[in-house]
Amino acid sequence: MTGPGTNSYLLGSEKLALIDPGPVIDSHIEQLLSACGDRLCWILVTHTHPDHSPAARRIADRTGARLIGCVMSDDGHQDRTFQVEENLYHGQLLETPEFTLEAIHTPGHVANQFCYLLRGEGVLFSGDHIMQGSSVVIIPPSGDMSDYICSTETLMNYPIQVIAPGHGELLDEPQTVLQQIVAHRLAREHRVLQSLIDLGESGLDRLLPEVYSDINPDLLAMARLSLWAHLLKLEKEGRIRKCIDLHWAFGEEHWTLADS
Ligand SMILES: [Zn+2]
Fold it and tell me: Tens digits of per-residue pLDDT, 24-57?
């Protein structure tokens, strides 16, 4: 699920900040330490999934760098080794003589996801809010589709010049990227509604091949999570409702259109 791997970013030349140190892979950690020398002062994480934050503790112990991020309760997908010295809040600034980073809370992929904007240059370090080459998985209950779309719209108000994702290459034309993300999610949501019209009352497994008929079948297990997030959003908005059909579902959650 990490594509070509997790991107770690180093900022500065005198005093360095490291964004998303990644997983505990010895060769990767040694490479980061050798690039930093004795200049590493801050380690920031975009969120605490196992491919983004576990190396933070090890690198902090070796360098004395300050750990900055947001810890959340474990939802079964968290790096539980991560502990912060500084818990992030929306709008928080890391100001150094060389650069200023602004923390932007972007819940959706997961509740504790933050992006960091390098002010002046307009580089947005997006973690897993935006990836290059694929859609981000939304994993309820800590992931939330409404929040994801709302966070993406919030990012449209920032002076972003380029997006530096947690996975994949840099993305130019950030406003286009952000608009495409929202449009893509709303188009998928439309397919969910259309599938409920076509199939009638349905559970996740019946909807999945209908709603995601256009993707690689290997990705369906992950898509199922995002489908669940779409259904929860639509239910919260009162556009669909949950029903239980014991006849053929034995209690499995099913949804139907609210007005049916
Ligand atoms: Zn993640």
Answer: 999 999 999 999 999 999 999 999 999 999 999 9
183-257 maps to CATH 1.10.10.10: yes
Give the residue ranges of DSSP H helices in 108-237.
Answer: 145-155, 174-199, 204-211, 220-236
Between the ranges 86-90, 105-109, 134-138, where is the mean pLDDT highest?
Answer: 105-109
- Within 10 angstroms of residue 246's Cβ, the number of other Cβ atoms is 8
CA 260 to centroid of ligand 1, rounded, Å: 36
Residue entry with tokens 């030349």: 13
Cβ–Cβ under 8 Å, residues 49 and 23: no
Cα-to-centroid distance, 30 and ligand 1 (Å): 23
Distance 47 CA to ligand 1 centre (A): 7
| Topology of the domain comprising 9-171 | Metallo-beta-lactamase; Chain A (3.60.15)
**Which residues are close to ligand 1, an ion, with C-beta < 5 A?**
49, 128
CA of 97 to the centre of ligand 1 (A): 31
Expressed in angstroms and rounded, the spacing between residue 142 Cα and the centre of ligand 1 is 11
Residue 109 CA, ligand 1 centroid: distance in Å: 7
Q: CA angle, 165 as apex, 159 and 168 as ends, to 5°?
A: 140
Contact status, residue 182 vs residue 153, Cβ threshold 8 Å: yes
CA gyration radius, the chain: 20
Mean model confidence pLDDT for the chain: 93
Q: Please tell me the pTM assigned to this model.
A: 0.93
Domain residue extents for the chain? 9-171, 183-257
Question: Which residue stretches of the chain are H helix?
Answer: 26-36, 55-63, 145-155, 174-199, 204-211, 220-236, 246-249
